What does this fold into?
Amino acid sequence: MEPVITNATNVKVVDARQIDYSNDFWITDPPYADAINYHELTEYFLAWYGKKLTSLFPDWYSDSRRALAVKGSDEAFRRSMVDCYKNLTNNMPDNGMQVVMFTHQDAGVWADLALILWAAGLQVTSAWTIATETDAIGIKKGNYVQGTVTLVLRKRQSNEVGFLDEITHDIKPEVERQLQSMLDVEDKDDPNFTDSDYQLAAYAAALRVLTSYKQIEDLDIERELSRPRNKNADKSPIESIIESGVKIASNFLIPKSLHDDEITRRDLWRNLSADEKFYIKGLEIESHGDYRQGVYQEFAKGFGLREYTNMLESGKANETRLKTASEFKRREVGTPGFGSTLTRHVLFAISQVVAAEDVSLGLRWLKEEIPGDYWQQKQTILSILRYIAKMPIEHWQEDAKWATLLAGTVENDSV
Ligand SMILES: C[S@@+](CC[C@H](N)C(=O)[O-])C[C@H]1O[C@@H](n2cnc3c(N)ncnc32)[C@H](O)[C@@H]1O
It folds into this structure.
């Protein structure tokens, strides 16, 4: 027999703070800080259908109710969001659930969301990124995420007190688990997720840890809710924790073509400096034809770099890219920072080989000048050379060709 599915629908336009009936599930798509002024959008459309609306639906109203809209970005936004979510939580049984959709790339806004959900008595129990920017509705150009994070929340039942260092420690496995689950389902040939999506997922994983505690050290919720969010204000400890999630993500997402073997790849990555990781990740992005400025800013944040413009050939929006080995020439070789890293020496060796059209110069440089022992570093040098050799882009063509030849020479070199 066919199952009979019955349902009752009830459409009400009401302020989330005024809801006075209980539901097992609440699914919300809240305004994201100051991203969009929904009340203004509503007024634009009401100009057309405002009159019709009240004749078709006599119980509805046709003004935008500006005063009730959750808006702004600071204390007012946080407090009205807490009031909305507290009310929904109060109107939900203990085994009820909430689903919250959220998209924002700023760690500060995620810190606000953590605070809001936490103050409302909710705990994030799982999170998933779904692709929302599809070809069908048009992909926006620029530094946009392709997905929205969907958070699943329950009433927090725990009485546990968490300490900041302990929480920071717990976040690592949680972020890694979240990213691994995304990598496992990713289509290798036609990827759905961008680095921005992984960053969002890292934020969500950090929220899962943060909101599981009833009390976080001596964090004063009132003070946190009223904390101004601007450049001069102290950063909230919650924001620092959430940022640490992005750092973990940056270290977890290693470019695959650096080495076929995963363990070797992780070892290699671990031994590279933050500047080298930034450069190598940047090349990966470039190899996908991505020239967005914001991607580099996010990487710099993720790897904790203050200065990276010296590595860029162009910093213009949508044209941002790294210098090739030949474009770098001798610049900054041997100076502190990127200049004294193994990657920089390998790049310089390539540029010499390209200029002289002779691999022996490059080999000599590597043997005489690289920091540490050439023989000990040989495998890493080979991996970097081969990584560069695979760059599929026109402005890398010449450097990549000579990197292949230099790699062959290094490989066959013996004591
Ligand atoms: C991100 S949008 C939701 C978009 C919607 N899911 C859609 O696909 O069209 C956020 C919505 O929250 C509404 N909102 C703002 N303040 C509210 C409040 N106090 N109670 C209920 N909804 C509110 C805004 O009017 C806006 O429509």
User: Anything to note?
Assistant: Residues 262-415 form one domain. Residues 15-16, 29-31, 38, 68-70, 84 surround S-adenosylmethionine (CB under 6 Å).
